[in-house]
Design goal:
single chain; Collagenase (Catalytic Domain)
């Protein structure tokens, strides 16, 4: 199965070449968890865009950093992952990390949702954070 991973920066502020280098990392994470990557799209937008998606599709009137739509099956992950760069930048400042690090954290967070991980309760959130930290440890900061 061929993996097709796309990046669309609606804000036109990211280094897409740097994002493209993340493909093998995403494929590795999925393979490690027992899945293949089919078609996977990352859409980078602003708070307004992601808030509209949250209200219209999930009936949540809140701001968020990532929304994941899962179109996969038992063996492959496929879907769309929408990321608010406004939230990413705010979180990077809040947690005193580079924006590139926070982007990777949100990317892998969305991928982990497609892999079946949840973060609705403290136990699940701790497991997801542990997985994020593990996969982030395999990537280097380059900003």
């Amino acid at each position: 199965m061929d993996s097709r991973i796309f990046f669309n920066d609606n804000t036109q502020t990211l280094d897409i070449d740097e994002l493209n280098s993340l493909r093998s990392w995403i494929i590795f994470a999925a393979k490690t968890e027992g899945y293949f990557v089919g078609e996977l799209g990352f859409i980078f937008c602003d708070d307004k865009c992601l808030h509209n998606i949250n209200v219209n599709f999930l009936n949540h009137d809140t701001y968020t950093d990532v929304i994941t739509f899962d179109y996969g099956n038992n063996t492959s992950i496929e879907g769309e992952i929408y990321i608010s760069l406004d939230r990413v930048r705010e979180n990077a400042t809040k947690f005193n990390v580079k924006v590139s690090h926070e982007i990777r954290r949100i990317i892998i967070h969305g991928v982990l949702h497609l892999l079946g991980y949840e973060d609705k309760n403290p136990k699940d959130k701790n497991l997801m954070t542990s997985k994020e930290d593990y996969y982030l440890s395999l990537q280097s900061d380059s900003e």
